[in-house]
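Students often ask why inverse folding is considered easier than folding. One informal answer: many sequences map to the same fold, so there is more than one right answer. In these notes we will look at a single instance of the problem. The structure comes first.
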């Protein structure tokens, strides 16, 4: 599902950067039992929807069928009211985005993040009145 949210294009996709592994780690090591159960129940709900719509599990559906299910979940997410089943998809999207954009590839290839942008000249001469630019004189 994460790969459908962030597919591979000219930049890496969710699978390429290990989003599923990140989500699994959070679920097993960080989530409490209640939240973990809610997320796993949400996965079960996605499979149940796939079975109702296409008479097969989500992973056995074609990419078009899988996208249709995610579109339905997205539409439901935007409606007012929040039930346990509606919390799964926003949580999945949030975890997917967090995993992707905090990965090295997501940060550098997609966001063009630089840990140390530009260059630092620690011994560069200062400009007029202790500034490195022209401006009003200080008293």
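Output (designed amino acids):
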């Amino acid at each position: 599902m994460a790969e459908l949210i962030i597919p591979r294009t000219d930049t890496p996709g969710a699978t390429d950067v290990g989003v599923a592994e990140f989500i699994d780690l959070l679920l097993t090591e960080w989530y409490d039992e209640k939240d973990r159960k809610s997320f796993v129940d949400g996965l079960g709900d996605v499979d149940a929807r796939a079975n109702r719509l296409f008479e097969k599990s989500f992973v056995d559906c074609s990419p078009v069928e899988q996208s249709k299910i995610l579109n339905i979940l997205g539409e439901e997410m935007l409606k007012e009211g929040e039930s346990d089943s509606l919390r799964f998809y926003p949580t999945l999207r949030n975890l997917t985005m967090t995993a992707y954009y905090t990965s090295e590839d997501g940060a550098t290839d997609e966001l063009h993040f630089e840990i140390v942008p530009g260059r630092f000249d620690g011994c560069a001469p200062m400009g007029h009145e202790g500034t490195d630019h022209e401006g009003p004189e200080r008293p």
